[in-house]
Write a structure and sequence with these properties.
By secondary structure, the chain is mainly alpha-helical. The chain contains 21 helices and 9 strands. 47% of the residues are buried.
Length: 602
């Protein structure tokens, strides 16, 4: 076991979560834990793109540009560049609080110079100059797209099939028929596995149902009151068309607590109540995505296996070679960006409504309660009841994810059999035993147990590789397309939930959206998160560019790796066919193998 790398459970604000101990460094993690050099080049290019977009926005919106305006815009770009490089390079000497205050003050000054815009979507649309508007902007107020979001969007692992409605969601058959038509019934849909729900009850403690005030930014002293709720939503597959559609939304857990049942009815009386209810669901989904699906259950989970691997395996060990490229840049991004983004006034604090300490506590809770074996990809699909292709014919995340899982599993199985001929070989491998014990003793992964068989080892390694590659890709690289465009999703609602079915207006819906500065900063961070691709699944190289499995070094490994890459090509063909056959509302390119980085590095 290496004494060079140690654990820490004192990384603020994630106290108690096992992470790499980087307390001795004032700047960055050790150089050997950095991603390849081209990563920085890609990052710098994206930062420049963000700055060019922001500059073009202000120049297009200020009627008469002065020299002072030019200086302010250049200073704004300089501050933003400094902040992003600090986040991703780990320069702890840069004060994020100072850069944020300076950014807000200058941005507010420039905002006061903007021409008045129509109080509608043009406020947000005008911010896309160099950067193109994301996919979701094409489907504003589109119910079918709102439903498809659950199957191929930014948080596709939450929807669950139900055969009965929970008591606190009193949807009637008559209301169901108002949306789905008289030829269907709620009972028939339930019995044929066509009813699915979102339920954000587990956000308890991490929402702001009564509103929570946070500083707007800068030194103005102004505060913004934000709201978020533990929403519930019901969807169903149409019995004739097979389309997956939204049916009803309840904005909180208790129907009697000013939470009427909003239906997907598009008429003048109900349209804006429904749109407001959809935004409540989006706020809950965004909070769950960031705290659980993304940060807690990919980044922080992968950290455990990355630390255990560099602590316990020699570089010549076959499991080190199999795993190490799947951890490229992971420890660095976790310590430099993730921890900083959870700081006061940073990304999570600004974009989520609840108190920051509560958001951090919920992230810790999600990570600690995550059971390793219960969340193998095929198992979690079964547990959520989403394997029935008649009840849910098209589910891109499920369909493509299963292909990737089986590709990885087959490759790992063939690779492991080269080095472990029987179960006894598992027990006699001292480095492997140490690795397992380190995870059990120090990693705090719920349900992780001793590995005693070859088949168990294969499943464990498959889960690790899938999490670091496909699962992270599914929740990270969809952020740009689905979460960037402010009118489609916000985590902090500026106006409270709708409390009655009638008398809701477009003005009420617009009042839920954040101001222009926060919308503009979202474009920046989601461009970086959604466009920085580094490496790909099936590539096995060290961060220095050298091949992990040089051809000719081990002919058996060469043959099995080639089979893996061929299977990924077949999966690519499968996905491309599904994307073009009309079964998907829009193409789902996220899990095309070439689009899946091998590791979590952004």
């Amino acid at each position: 076991m290496s004494n060079k790398y140690n654990w820490s459970t004192n990384v603020s604000p994630l106290i108690g979560i096992p992470m790499f101990d980087n307390s001795q460094s004032i700047i960055d993690v050790p150089a050997e834990l950095h991603p390849r050099d081209e990563y920085t080049d890609k990052l710098n290019a994206l930062i420049q793109k963000v700055n060019d977009n922001m500059s073009a926005y202000y120049l297009s919106q200020i009627k008469i540009i002065t020299e002072e305006d030019h200086r302010d815009i250049n200073k704004l770009c300089e501050i933003l560049s400094e902040k992003y490089r600090a986040l991703f390079s780990g320069d702890k000497e840069v004060s994020l609080k100072y850069t944020d205050e300076s950014f807000f003050e200058i941005a507010s000054k420039l905002d006061s110079r903007l021409e008045a815009s129509d109080p509608d979507l043009s406020l947000y649309d005008s911010q896309y100059k160099i950067i193109e508007k994301p996919l979701s902007a094409e489907f504003i107020h589109d119910n079918e797209f709102f439903a498809y979001w659950r199957l191929a969007g930014s948080n596709p692992g939450v929807i669950k099939q139900v055969n009965f409605l929970p008591k606190n969601f009193p949807l009637t058959d008559a209301d169901y028929k108002k949306v789905m038509g008289p030829s269907d019934s709620l009972q028939s849909a339930l019995e044929s596995n066509r009813v699915y729900m979102l339920d954000y009850a587990d956000l308890d403690g991490a929402v702001a149902e009564e509103g929570f005030a946070k500083p707007e930014g800068g030194s103005s002293g102004n505060e913004i009151i934000g709201y978020s709720y533990k929403a519930m939503a019901l969807f169903a597959t149409h019995n004739v068309t097979g389309k997956f559609m939204p049916v009803a939304i309840q904005c909180g857990q208790a129907a009697e607590d000013s939470n009427p049942m909003f239906l997907a009815i598009d008429d003048d009386d109900h349209r804006w109540g429904w749109e407001r209810a959809k935004m409540v669901v989006q706020g809950a989904d965004k909070t769950h995505h960031q705290l659980s699906s993304h940060l807690g259950l990919t980044h922080l989970l992968a950290e455990v296996f990355a630390v255990a691997t560099i602590r316990n395996f020699s570089e010549a060990h076959p499991l080190y070679k199999l795993l190490i490229s799947h951890f490229e840049g992971t420890i660095r991004i976790n310590h430099n960006a993730i921890v900083a983004l959870l700081g006061p006034g940073q990304f999570v604090d600004n974009l989520m409504a609840a108190e920051l300490s509560k958001l951090a506590e919920k992230t810790i809770e999600y990570r600690e309660k995550f059971n390793f074996y219960d969340n193998f990809f095929p198992t979690t699909l079964l547990n959520r009841g989403v394997t029935d292709t008649k009840g849910l014919p098209s589910y891109p995340y499920r369909d493509d994810g299963l292909r990737i899982w089986h590709d990885i599993n087959s490759w790992v199985q063939r690779y492991i059999k080269i080095f472990y001929k029987n179960d006894a070989a598992i027990k006699s491998d001292r480095e492997l035993v140490n690795w397992v014990n380190d995870i059990i003793d120090n990693g705090k992964v719920d349900g992780f147990i001793q590995i005693t068989t070859v088949s168990q080892l294969v499943d464990v390694l498959t889960m690790i590789i899938f999490t670091c590659s496909a699962q992270h890709a599914a929740v990270n690289f969809t952020q740009r397309s689905y979460m960037m465009y402010t009118p489609q999703m916000v985590g902090t609602l500026k106006f409270e939930k709708p409390k009655s079915l009638l008398n809701n207006t477009k003005a009420h819906w617009l009042a839920m959206l954040p101001g222009s500065i926060r919308a503009l900063t979202r474009i920046g961070i989601y461009t970086l998160l959604g466009e920085l691709h580094n490496g790909y699944l099936g590539e096995y190289t060290y961060a220095n560019g050298k091949e992990i499995f040089p051809k000719g070094e081990n002919l058996e490994v060469d043959a099995e790796l080639e089979l893996f890459r061929e299977s990924l090509k077949l999966t690519t063909s499968f996905i491309n066919k599904r994307n073009s056959d009309g079964s998907r509302l829009v193409p789902y390119d996220t899990l095309i193998p070439a689009n899946i980085p091998a590791s979590i590095n952004i």
